[in-house]
Amino acid sequence: MEVKVLTTEDPSYKDALFVRKQVFVNEQNVSEQEEIDSHENKSAHFVLYDDRREPIGAGRLRPIEGGGKIERVCILASRRKQGLGELLMKKMEQAAKQSGYPSLTLYAQVHAEDFYKKLGYATTSKEPFLDANIWHVAMNKALN
Questions:
Q1: CB–CB of 54/78 below 8 Å?
Q2: Are 58 and 20 in contact (CB under 8 A)?
Q3: Would you put residue 57 in left (φ > 0), alpha (ψ -120 to 50) or beta?
Q4: Are 132 and 97 a contacting pair, CB within 8 Å?
Q5: Closest to 67 in 3D by CA, of 41, 40, 95
Q6: Coil vs helix vs strand at 139
Q7: 103-109 and 134-142: which strand pairing?
Q8: If DSSP codes are grouped into helix, strand and coil, which group holds residue 114?
Q9: Mean pLDDT per 10-residue run, the chain (144 residues)?
Q10: What is the rounded distance in angstroms from the CA atom of residue 133 to the CA atom of residue 41?
């Protein structure tokens, strides 16, 4: 397994978009206009590759006031429940620490809230909210 960190200028950026389209657009019915937004160029993009160099996971990290925001974290359906989401998140957190972010924020889909809690994130929203027609909660983690 390998995680590449890249920008929208990198030819491998298409691999991040491929995984995100499979998960968010095709599987969860998020519109492509909502999925590919104005934050793409301001973000560091992460692509998780399997041993055959096939893209199987993606996520992005962007600066926000007070830290960084993790977004668009996804693993292809056929590769879930193998610890790959945790591997991807650890790489993203390492990059955030190297960038000097004191904390990370993310909006977790409600079904994934426990996954992020196991990684040390605390729920900060009082109740779930709709984002792209999917219920989410806001979460935060301080980085040491």
A1: no
A2: yes
A3: beta
A4: no
A5: 95
A6: strand
A7: antiparallel
A8: helix
A9: 93 96 94 91 96 96 95 95 94 95 96 96 95 94 90
A10: 24
